[in-house]
Design brief:
By secondary structure, the chain is of the alpha/beta class. It has eleven helices and ten strands. Bound molecules: adenosine-5'-diphosphate. The site of adenosine-5'-diphosphate has 17 residues, from helix 2, helix 7 and helix 9. This is CbbQ/NirQ/NorQ/GpvN family protein.
């Protein structure tokens, strides 16, 4: 539903650019061929969402992406009765639509969602592949092609927000990390239009910032942020200003840490 940031994409023609890191495309295809649900683990902004969009297009399946948040309930995914022009009508949620259409449903950051969401996922992620809809009394069998994909970031150390073994053991799991430096430089260059040489320098800096994760920083700088910095530079912003805005400020609010990070910039670019 729109309030839950659902995005529907479809059609094989517009496969978004994705540079593979290893055997992830083959593994996803094999999981899909065997009707297995897939769990993508990895830090934010490392390419998980882009990967799913790419694979959905490659497999010619519509894709429903739901950005999960702590208020997202099972009803948001399944659907609800709404009042329309004085009449009460049932409106399918994104998960129900995907189940009916044989689409891919991608639950981004699934651990953020409310507990009742995992209950819904269980009968869909075993060989029954059914979605019980209590409110309408329907028991939907997933159409051929339906695939459940979920992602989460194991880096967030929140004991309350982790997937229970009974849930995670229903998925084939794939680990994602930031791409190797040469691949990441190519990605940054292709996505932003910056030269590969200059993109490589930004990626070198990103590597140094990522090494500080766990000490000064909760999370390392994402590929997404490196692309932002590169894009700002392409539109004419001075390098140091672009780096500060896209690769330093989003990481921390602590003035001392920020100063330390800016010193690192001088080391790499000075
Ligand atoms: P996540 O879902 O892991 O938070 P995204 O998939 O949104 O991250 O990735 C952030 C951005 O990084 C993408 O929009 C894309 O521009 C870029 N990106 C990351 N990895 C890749 C890759 N392997 N191929 C192409 N683009 C990538």
């Amino acid at each position: 539903m729109d309030g839950n940031l659902t995005l529907k994409q479809g059609g094989a023609a517009d496969a978004p650019f994705y540079l593979a890191q290893g055997g992830e495309c083959a593994l996803f295809e094999a999981a899909s061929a065997n009707d297995l649900p897939v769990l993508l683990k990895g830090p934010t902004g490392c390419g998980k969402t882009r990967f799913v969009a790419h694979m959905a297009a490659k497999l010619g399946r519509p894709l429903y992406t739901v950005a999960c948040h702590d208020d997202l309930s099972a009803a948001d995914l399944i659907g609800r009765y709404l009042l329309k022009g004085g009449e009460t009508v049932w409106v399918d949620g994104p998960l129900t639509r995907a189940v009916r259409e044989g689409a891919i449903c991608y639950l981004d950051e699934v651990v953020e969602a409310r507990k009742d969401v995992t209950v819904v996922l269980h009968p869909l992620t075993d060989d029954r592949r059914i979605l019980p809809i209590d409110r309408t009394g329907e028991e939907l069998e997933a159409a051929p092609g339906f695939m459940l994909v979920a992602s989460y970031n194991p880096g967030y150390q929140n004991i309350l927000k982790t997937l229970k073994p009974s849930t995670r053991q229903r998925f084939v799991a794939m680990e994602f990390d930031f791409p190797a430096p040469d691949l990441e430089a190519r990605i940054v260059a292709l996505e932003s239009g910056l030269s590969e040489e200059r993109a490589a320098a930004l990626v070198r800096l990103a590597g140094k910032l990522r090494a500080l994760k766990g000490q000064d920083l909760e999370e390392g700088v994402s590929t997404r942020l490196v692309i932002y910095a590169a894009s700002l530079i392409v539109t004419g912003m001075p390098i140091e200003r672009a780096i500060e805005a896209a690769m330093i400020q989003p990481l921390t609010d602590d003035a001392d840490i920020k100063r330390g990070l800016l010193d690192l910039v001088t080391v790499v670019f000075g």
